[in-house]
């Protein structure tokens, strides 16, 4: 996997409970959690946007 430029979510205040997001060269969105940085989830922009909308509806 190429080196990705990971950015910490602005909602991740605690250093131990962070979500990181990166865009891969193929345009997919990559997500990882600070407790398991070697586990990376890939998704598309539309799918991530849908997930965020659904989370906001339930918050």
Entry keywords:
59 residues, alpha+beta, four-stranded antiparallel beta sheet, 24% helix, flat, DUF397 domain-containing protein, DUF397
Shape: flat
Q: Could you give a short account of the major beta sheet?
A: 4 strands, antiparallel
Poorly predicted residue ranges = none
Report mean pLDDT, rounded to a whole number.
Answer: 88
Characterization of the model:
The protein has 59 residues and is an alpha+beta fold. The protein has one domain. The protein has one helix at residues 45-58; strands at residues 7-8, 19-23, 29-33, 36-43. Strands 1-2-3-4 form a four-stranded antiparallel beta sheet. It is flat. The model has no long low-confidence stretch (mean pLDDT 88).
Question: What does this entry show, briefly?
Answer:
The protein has 1 helix and 4 strands; from the N terminus they run E-E-E-E-H. 0% of the residues are buried.
Topology:
Elements: E1 7-8, E2 19-23, E3 29-33, E4 36-43, H1 45-58
Antiparallel strand pairs: 1-2, 2-3, 3-4
């Amino acid at each position: 996997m190429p080196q990705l430029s990971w950015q910490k979510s602005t909602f991740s205040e605690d250093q131990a409970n962070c979500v990181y997001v990166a865009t891969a060269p193929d345009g997919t969105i990559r997500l990882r959690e600070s407790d398991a940085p070697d586990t990376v989830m890939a998704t598309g922009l539309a799918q991530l946007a849908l997930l965020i909308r659904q989370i906001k509806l339930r918050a």
